Amino acid sequence: MQPADPFAALLQGRAAGPVLRIADDALIAVTVRRGGALARLGHDHVVAARRIDGHVDPAAGLAALRFRLDEMTVDEAALREEAGLAKQPSADAIAGTRVNMLTKVLEAGRYPLVEVRARRTGDAGALQADITLHGVTRSFAVPVTIEPAPPGLVARGTLTLKQTDFGITPFSVLGGAMAVQDTLEIRFVLPARPAAPDAVR
Q: Which of 77, 47, 57 is nearest to 180 (CA)?
């Protein structure tokens, strides 16, 4: 019997058929661009999620995953280079960005998780994804490439989101003269492989 909420079952690694588990080398990287009249004095940033919990049910065309905001990294040098960003900010600047992101912008203490529930559609090049962030859920058609990667698969893609779509006010100071742009650029690489029968994450 199909569970009432197949996505909730997937987060626990349970489904009607064999499931794949999001692998430890998964990555979701978010590029955050500076804005405002004094943008030249600020930095662009890359924040990334690497500890991603979730599973894929290939037969049903379903996937569910989630990650904690307070486990995201800020400005890994290699990810900044891949995003084409300039020199590395100082350790103090990175620490300040992390505090502002988690407390003033994302309110991670109140909304600690990001959750994604995706399903296959008639379009082979896209998934329909319900993304829950900051207590708000929005649905998006997400361009994606899914390739076999025996013994599992890997999904890759990019998309853009607006912070304001999730009730988030982009960070700004000096009356908006230094600010973060509303649009976020997201890149993901999500390998999924068979999980051990008794694996719990």
A: 47
Helix, strand, coil shares of the chain as percentages rounded to 5?
A: 20, 45, 35
State the residue for tokens 């995003």: 83
**By three-state DSSP, how is residue 94 classified?**
helix
Buried b (16+ CB within 10 A) or exposed e, 33-55: bbbbeebeebbbbbbbbeebbbb
Q: Which of 54, 45, 42 is nearest to 15 (CA)?
A: 54
Digit-coded pLDDT (tens) for 2-59:
556 888 888 888 776 789 999 999 999 999 987 654 445 567 899 999 999 999 999 9
Residue 104 bridge partners (DSSP): none
Q: Is pTM, for the whole model, over 0.85?
A: yes
- Which has the closest alpha carbon to 47: 111, 101, 107, 116? 101
CA of residue 193 relative to chain centroid, distance: 19
Distance CA 26, CA 103 (A): 25
What count of other Cβ atoms lies within 10 Å of the Cβ of residue 130?
15
Distance between CA atoms of residues 99 and 69, nearest Å: 11
